[in-house]
Amino acid sequence: MDDLEYGPVELVLAGFRGDKPSAGVLDALAELAEAGTIRVIDLVHVTRDADGRVAFFEVDESGIDIGVIDLVAGGLASHEDVTELGSRLPVGAAAVLLVVEHLWAKRLASRLVEAEGFVVDSVRIPAPVVNLVAAAAAEATAQAGGS
User: Fold this and answer.
1) Is residue 16 classed as helix, strand or coil in its secondary structure?
2) CB-based contact 13:86 (threshold 8 Å)
3) Alpha-carbon distance 65 to 21, whole Å?
4) pLDDT tens for residues 107-143?
5) With 132 labelled, which of 3, 25, 55, 140 sits at a CA distance of 20 to 30 A?
6) In whole angstroms, what is the distance from residue 56 CA to residue 86 CA?
7) Contact criterion met (CB below 8 Å) for 30 and 24
8) What is the pTM of this model?
9) Beta carbons within 8 Å of 66's beta carbon, 6+ residues apart
């Protein structure tokens, strides 16, 4: 069997202070895409005003410079996706909705389908949480070793 055309896709609503993400965030996204780790399918600028209304614009209409990031299928994030996720933003906040394909998992997904397997569940643990837990575990290990 050939590989699937697309691997797993994730929608990530990344909020930030101010009205747009920093250049560093966009640079990191471009680096991941250039390395072949992800493919950026769509990128939407989302805001939630003081009255709680959600507004969104395709990134090319929002004035955000995405540099070398090549959007594979701009407009793929549905109105429902953006509205539902945007309603989770704090009032007065802004975000970008990233629609990213996990290229690193494409071959695995293809082999799973080939074997008539399926994903039962998938859980993403936010990086700050992982770092806190890892630091606490390292500290506990160091204290246990030093006792």
Assistant:
1) strand
2) yes
3) 10
4) 999 999 999 999 999 998 989 999 999 999 999 999 9
5) 25
6) 8
7) no
8) 0.82
9) 26, 30, 43, 59, 60
